Every structure is written in C-alpha cells, then in structure tokens.
Amino acid sequence: MKNKSFSFTHPGHKRRVNEDSFYVNDEKGLWVVCDGMGGHEEGLFASSLATDSFSALELNSTFNDNVERILQTIHFIKQQLDKKVYTLDINDFVGTTLILLYIKDGKALCISAGDSRCYILRNDKLSLVNKDHTRDVIDAKQETRSVLTNAIFAPGDINIDIKKFTINKNDVFLLCSDGLYSYLNIKEIKHAMNLAFEGRGLNLLKTSVLSQDADDNLTGAMICVL
C-alpha cells in the first residue's frame, strides 16, 4: 500500500502569527500537526521545533524500531523545550500539542498530546483515533470553555497517548488542529473525507472554516491509503 496526502496551514482571520506547524512525508509514512502555545514567539518556536525534529528523523528500519525512534524524538523535543524555558527564565509554560500518524507495512501508530485530532474514515464510518486532553471550566463570564490538560510542554512531564492499529486500503485520515475542527460538524468532515481521493476534501474543509470567523490558526493534513 502507498499513501497520498494533502496539507495546509492558515493563520485564520484574527491571529497575527500562525503558531501551528505541520510536517508531511508520504514516502516516509509520517504526518504531524502541532499547535504551539506560550505566546506568539514561544508557541511558534515549540511547534516548529517539533515538526523540524520529525523532519530530520530517519525511519529506515522496522516498524517497531521506528516507533522507538519517534518516541526518542519526542523526548528530544521535550529536552529542548526545557532548555528554552531555563534560558529565558519564563514563569509560564512553553509547548505544543501533537498529533502524529506513522504508517508502515500495514501498521499504524498514532501519538497524541493536547487537543489536536486524528480522524479515520473506514468503510464509510467516521471515528476519532485519539481523544482530546481537555476539560471544561467556567470562566469569569460564567461561560463554559475547554482548557488543555496535556501537551508537549515545559516545565512538566511527558504524558502522551499511544495507539497502534492495522490499516486497510482506502482508509482516509485527517490530522488537524482545533482551529479547523472547531468550526466543522461531523457531517461536513465525513463528506470532505469521502472526497479525499479526488483531492478536493481538505480544501473543502479549509474553505468552509475561512468563510466563518476563523479566529484561530487552522491546520490540516488528509492522508489517503492507496
């Protein structure tokens, strides 16, 4: 089986800086979406550090060995974030969400931290591969909002969700930051993913969100298993 992906990132309508970052490599079988946090410069540093680190990663061994290399890379990213916080003497945290998909020899790995998501469309059934690391809180205006409970950040410990599974021909995956899926419903996402093999699906989602407020950065990668 081979893979073909489509990807994009956009700052949205209200953010001056795009703190999202992504890395896609169909031949390597690796796709990553990150949403940085900790202020404009620090958030962009964190998300770019993550995607640049995976870009430099060689995956030329077995599936299990490559999984270990991916995990080692996550620990490297965490170490670099720790150094950043120590150097700048930051009182707050610096970090990034992470949603990662790796495919090799009919096997798949999904790693997540934060509220970026991985959807799968299989046999016309849409489901989430990972779960959000969030909780609902009531703010000063007595409005309910979601806050992150986990990410790849410093200071703090690494706490990631790891899921391994098999893939099927014609599976479609969508990796995305919350700036994309927050403006979409399940029917819209499923309809777009059904158009993935035509190359129109991801652009349909992008156009839909940008026709609305789009007050956050938005990033997506749609992967087709051929």
UniProtKB/TrEMBL annotation:
InterPro entries: PPM-type-like_dom_sf, PPM-type_phosphatase-like_dom
Domain PPM-type phosphatase: 5-225
Taxonomic superkingdom: Bacteria
Gene3D superfamilies: PPM-type phosphatase domain (3.60.40.10)
Annotated protein name in UniProt: Serine/threonine-protein phosphatase
